[in-house]
Write a structure and sequence with these properties.
The protein is of the alpha/beta class and 454 residues long. The chain has 2 domains: 8-231 and 434-453, Glycogen Phosphorylase B (Rossmann fold, 3-Layer(aba) Sandwich), CATH 3.40.50.2000; 252-431, Rossmann fold. The chain is 42% helix and 13% strand. The chain is built from 18 helices and 13 strands. A 7-stranded parallel β-sheet has the order 3-2-1-4-5-6-7, sandwiched between helices. Strand 12 (367-369), helix 15 (375-385) and strand 13 form a beta-alpha-beta unit. Helix 6 (135-142) packs across helix 15 and helix 11 packs across helix 16 (399-410). The chain is globular, with a radius of gyration of 22 Å. The mean pLDDT is 95. The structure holds uridine-5'-diphosphate-xylopyranose. Belongs to the UDP-glycosyltransferase family. This is Glycosyltransferase. One of its GO terms (molecular function) is quercetin 7-O-glucosyltransferase activity.
């Protein structure tokens, strides 16, 4: 493996799809800027090294039990941060003791792998953080102690619609909460990940100045270190060289593209709720009927296991797909970036995970927002009330509202047109920041120099 002197980086992704994708995209960006890349990853959800011949991969055992893998997201992340400490430290020590290898310039850790800070301190290795979510949601996370002090948290049902005056335009119901029986554990996790981000030497965001300037300003006043908004990561390269199919943990169904090819421009609603969110059987049926009644063609990603209590599509009424006469296509997992870039796609019904939100913005596709948890709620509020490139389903998952929202966004009318026009304009802004003197390019140059100065 080629080594680049003084430029060896160790990257640590959180082993979840929405975190692996941006970390490996960042690896490409830094590699093309002259760094050599070593990825330390868990055996659980491990990336496929053969897709990345230019990078080194080291696998560590996370020590998690079967119950911890299948526990909820909160307990999984906490267990991972405990289980990885020793194997990670041992792996790093082994790497450092190999004198035939280049010294390590610094580690870049997912913010949610907060355990890496104490390991970095103990072996005196500089640590920079990649926060894979947006800047605005990070500002909300870092406000948790204050939000608790002011009694915004825990959330009271009677106050859901009230504004959070200190975090405009968020309402109480937009705060990045997670539905759990153990809220104290969740607060502790958030405080820990914010604290260890603060203790790092800098933060990289998959975002860009024009998109989140106000949150970036707030953060730079609160945090003592440099901030590098160098996104959108996936747009640094031509589509095929860093395609998300390389880092996809599930195989992407290419039938989506040939199905879309048969449709007119802007005529299809694409729907996906990412790699983690789950819905109830009742919500699934409301969505299905809302889509069917709208008469608009749809491409729907139904991830196996994402409908509580069922395996895949067994809850669909019999004859449902046949009655659509080709107007609907359901797959288990799609090549999302290619789908969003397809001219047939006119709207994206999304859970507003940050990657999906940013991918939609970069494709100029307006969104129907159905956030499920954590940062998704903040992202959805920004989509609808700051960037104004989407609509939010506010009354829960109900077939009539679904039909109305889809029609509003897809059919000829003033409100829909304004949203579509703004989405196209925002796409242009996203492309401008990656031009040679654009903000993300300049920030990337700053990041490269910063790493070399550590
Ligand atoms: C998680 C969290 O839920 C999210 O809130 C956080 O911002 C990041 O981590 P996830 O729910 O999976 O991520 O959503 P998202 O951030 O949108 O990432 C999903 C990724 O999977 C995207 O890069 C998307 O392109 C890809 N994807 C999704 C596919 O390749 N195919 C699909 O069918 C659906």
């Amino acid at each position: 493996m080629e080594q680049r002197r003084g430029r060896r980086l160790v990257l640590i992704p959180l082993p979840l799809q929405g975190h692996i994708n941006p970390m490996l995209q960042l690896a490409h960006i830094l590699h093309s800027n002259g760094f050599s890349i070593t990825v330390i990853h868990t055996t659980f959800n491990s990336p496929n090294p053969s897709n990345y011949p230019n990078f080194n991969f080291y696998s560590i055992q996370d020590g998690l039990s079967e119950t911890e893998y299948t526990s909820d997201l909160l307990n999984f992340i906490i267990a991972l941060n405990i289980g990885c400490v020793t194997p990670f430290k041992e792996c790093l020590m082994k790497m450092l003791s190999d004198t035939s290898e280049e010294p390590i310039a610094c580690m870049i850790s997912d913010a949610m792998c907060y355990f890496t800070q104490s390991v970095a301190d103990s072996i005196k290795l500089p640590r920079i953080v990649l926060r894979t979510g947006g800047v605005s949601s990070f500002v909300a996370f870092s406000a948790f102690p204050f939000l608790r002090e002011k009694a915004y948290l825990p959330i009271q049902e009677s106050k859901l619609e009230e504004p959070v005056a200190e975090l405009p335009p968020l309402r109480v119901k937009d705060l990045p909460m997670f539905n759990t029986k153990e809220p104290e554990k969740y607060y502790e996790l958030i405080c820990r990940f914010v604290k260890e981000t603060k203790n790092s030497l800098g933060v990289i965001f998959n975002s860009f100045e024009d998109l989140e300037s106000s949150a970036l300003k707030t953060l730079s006043q609160q945090f003592p270190f440099p901030i590098f908004p160098i996104g959108p990561f996936h747009k640094h390269f031509p589509e095929d060289s860093t395609s998300s199919s390389l880092s996809s943990l599930i195989s992407q169904d290419q039938s989506c593209i040939s199905w879309l090819d048969k449709h007119k421009p802007n005529s299809v609603v694409y729907m996906s709720f990412g790699s983690l969110a789950a819905i109830t059987e009742n919500e699934f049926l409301e969505i299905a009927w809302g889509l069917s009644n709208s008469k608009i063609p749809f491409l729907w990603v139904v991830r196996p296991g994402s409908i509580c209590g069922t395996e895949w599509l067994e809850a669909l009424p019999s004859g449902f797909m046949e009655n659509l006469e080709g107007r609907g296509h359901i797959v288990k997992w799609a090549p999302q970036q290619e789908v969003l870039a397809h001219q047939a796609v006119g709207a994206f019904w999304t859970h507003n995970g940050w990657n999906s939100t940013l991918e939609s913005i970069c494709a100029g596709v307006p969104m129907i927002c159905m956030p499920c948890f954590t940062d998704q709620k903040v992202n959805a509020r920004y989509v609808t009330h700051v960037w104004k490139v989407g609509l939010q389903l506010e009354k829960g998952v109900e077939r009539k509202e679904i039909e109305k929202s889809i029609r509003k966004l897809m059919e000829e009318n003033d409100e829909g047109k304004k949203i579509r026009d703004r989405a196209l304009k925002l796409k242009e802004d996203a492309m401008l920041c990656l031009k040679p003197s654009g903000s993300s390019c300049c920030s990337l140059e700053g990041l490269v120099n910063y790493i070399l100065s550590l």
